[in-house]
Design brief:
This protein is an alpha/beta fold. It is built from 11 helices and 9 strands. The chain is about 50% helix and about 15% strand.
Length: about 260
């Protein structure tokens, strides 16, 4: 049994966290498996969208605390081990956003600590009713500092800080209201609704979505003037695509575009 399962349907890649007995914890093995797939997807032009889901009763419960406890037994108290672990986790989280393909989290059960970080790192997220989200490390004396990075880039500061410092869960409905996820759906249609969103995105011009995703995150870090200058150049590049010319012509002529990609 693979700890991370992959199957592709047309232009959509499905990555399924498959360690239900550990609530799909981001163990060393899970991080390695995710990194391997992210590396492979970077150059996979057949995939236009990635859906990330979890097996069992939870999406992801964060880091594997049993492994972390074992890592503390090193001579240095685990300092080198923990530095390597959190660096590898950060590479996975940033790797999700650096993928050319949009990534959609399909969330159920709980998404806590680094599991909540994973949701926040995805480009979009759909959650089942009853799902709970939290950055609960403070409850065991470990402030969720690395999950804070993605969380505070998704929701307003005061709401993010409240979650971090209280360690309390929020409901899926609250997560939607705060902007952590896109929508909440009944549990029995979670997969259907997520795949409908994935199929819709996959139907767009892949080259345009790729350039747009990269620009989305780049401009968010810039000043207003720099962002307009940068995205203006991106628009120029996009306009020169043959398929963009075809898309505009098709719209004007009221027909389906004949895209090459």
């Amino acid at each position: 049994m693979k700890i991370l399962e992959r199957h592709d349907t047309n232009a959509v890649c499905h990555l399924h966290l498959n360690a239900p007995e550990r609530l799909n914890a981001l163990s060393e093995e899970m991080l390695d498996a995710l990194q391997e797939q992210l590396d492979a997807l970077q150059s996979d032009t057949s995939v236009r969208v990635v859906v990330l889901s979890g097996a069992g009763k939870a999406f992801c419960a964060g880091h594997d605390l049993k492994q972390m406890t074992a890592g503390r037994q090193a001579e240095d108290g685990g300092k080198a081990y923990f530095k390597d672990l959190f660096d590898r986790c950060a590479n996975v989280m940033t790797g999700v956003q650096r993928l050319p393909q949009p990534v959609i989290a399909q969330v159920h059960g709980i998404a806590t600590a680094a599991g909540c970080q994973l949701v926040a790192s995805c480009d979009m997220a759909v959650a089942a009713e009853g799902t709970r989200f939290g950055v609960n490390g403070v409850n065991i004396g470990l402030f969720c500092s690395t999950p804070m990075v993605a969380l505070s880039r998704n929701i307003a500061r005061k709401h993010a800080f409240e979650m971090l410092v209280t360690g309390q869960f929020i409901t899926a409905e609250r997560a939607e209201a705060l902007g952590l996820i896109n929508k909440v759906v009944p549990a029995n249609v979670l997969e259907t609704e997520t795949h409908a969103l994935a199929d819709l995105v996959a139907s767009k011009l892949g080259a345009a979505v790729k350039i747009g995703k990269s620009a989305f995150y780049e401009q968010a870090q810039m000043t207003l003037d720099d962002a307009y200058a940068y995205t203006g150049d991106v628009m120029v590049e996009n306009m020169l695509y043959r398929d963009t010319e075809e898309g505009i012509a098709a719209f004007l002529e009221k027909r389906a575009p004949d895209w090459s990609q």
